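Provenance and format

Records in this collection were gathered into a single text stream. Each protein contributes a sequence line and a token line. The two records reproduced below are adjacent in the stream.
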Amino acid sequence: MSLSGPAARFAFSTTLALLAALPCPAADSDAQKHTLHYKFEIGDVLRYDIEHDALIRSTMEGSTQKAQTRSQSVKAWKVIDVLPNGEIELQHVVEELQMTNRLPERAEVSYDSTKDKAPPAGFEDAAKAVGVPLSHIRLTPWGKVVNHEVKHHQPAADPYAPLAVLLPEKPVAVGDSWDEPVEIKVNLSEGGTKAVTTRRHFRLASVKNGVAVIESAFQTLSPVTPEMEGQLAQRYIEGTVRFDIKRGRVLSQEYDVDKRVLGFAGPASSMHYRMHMTERLQDGAAVASRPSKTDEK
């Protein structure tokens, strides 16, 4: 039996009403907006295990040399204060360091802060930087540095190294991107320096089970010569950041560099820089104190 006229219109309207009453399917996570902000409390201590391997092979005037460094360290962020406006004050400390250097025409040299009472030659500055406050940092909830006060000067410290992963100030959906502009000064062979416009580019790649996966890449925005590019080689990082949205903290970072530069020190010169770095939040991190070495045995 078919319906027509008023009966058909009644049946159609009833169907629409029933459909309207059904629960809507969950929105695709790609279309949702996510707030990626740091969430710390006073007294939190976040410890990260860091592994860093770097290899540089350079050729000049027909001679090739290779230098390699490998390090493992424990970095701690100690939250000193959280201000009413949400800004976070924290202290940066390197609590442990194991490091090995292989330099041209030299024997391999290693240092372990957990075992060595005195560092070998060449590791004195690194040893002095272990277990002491390196800097006090004030961040916005999205990781913009408001103030950076150096407490312990390190001669080999990179002034352009990021202090924190920059997050988007406003909520973002999967596929959205944001940038952190960085102006870097490089030395010129004829004397003086030149500013290079660069940026760290970020993109929200996915969100699953409350963890945001962020892609990151370093990019130069102004023209560079091989000489300038040689000084920037170590900065061409590409990698991913895993961020716990609910707890508001970085879970891990993983970066790689594989950069070749021809003519960095003259027409017949070349450089190949490779680097791999991982940083992972320790299990049970965000505790107020660290056990002594005696307690850990």
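Adjacent record:
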Amino acid sequence: MAGRDTAAADPMTPDVPRRAGSRYWLAGLNPAAKLLAALVLALGLVPAVDAVTGGTVLVGVLLLLPFSGIDRRTLLVLGGPFLLMGLSSGLVNHLYGEHGLEGAVGVAVRLLAIALPGAVAAVSSDPTETADGLVQRLKVPERPAMGVLAALRLVPMLADQWRTVTLARRARGLEAGRHPLRAVSLFFSRLFALLVRAVRTGTLMATAMDARGFGTGPRTHARHSRWRAADTLLVVGAVLLLAAAYTLSARLGTLVLLFG
């Protein structure tokens, strides 16, 4: 979009060594291609509820992580919530589901395989390039594309605000110590404070964007979003990975369809 700062000068750009060499080739691809590939995998995994299909896709995505340029710290922060989400979903399905442990593992793996590609695509892409790709390549209306750009720009700010809230409460003596229940209570209290700040920041940003006429008509772009052969290969690779996952599951006799 117009008025883009360089990634090196923007402190809110994700810490990804973009185009630092051929090793991190995934970071240099068009964000629209990465999001489209993630969408293909997510929609393709909806009918399959077995662990083999989702596990094959998940392994394929994990093999691409070293080429995404995402540092270890970001990877841990990114993977922690998804791992917790998968484990909790698997536990709930194991306790209350009808398919036992096998069904619980399938749900957990499938959830991770659906969520992780989109997260990797978002973190390994520059927010401005993502908005450009959405508008110019995927023909997304500019208003929601601007919303995506604003949301990606706000993620580092929310992380800083979380640290600020934590330090402020610690300075007031609000610490859990070794009491686990108090730790949970303080966590949700900080989460509510962060939610309030996020709503306020989002309201101010929406008002400022409306005042500048974002989304009211056609806009010019500071640069062209290029679609290369490698971007097409990534989308085709996602389709082939999905086909390989279904083929492997079918041959092993483990394929279970949601609507079967």
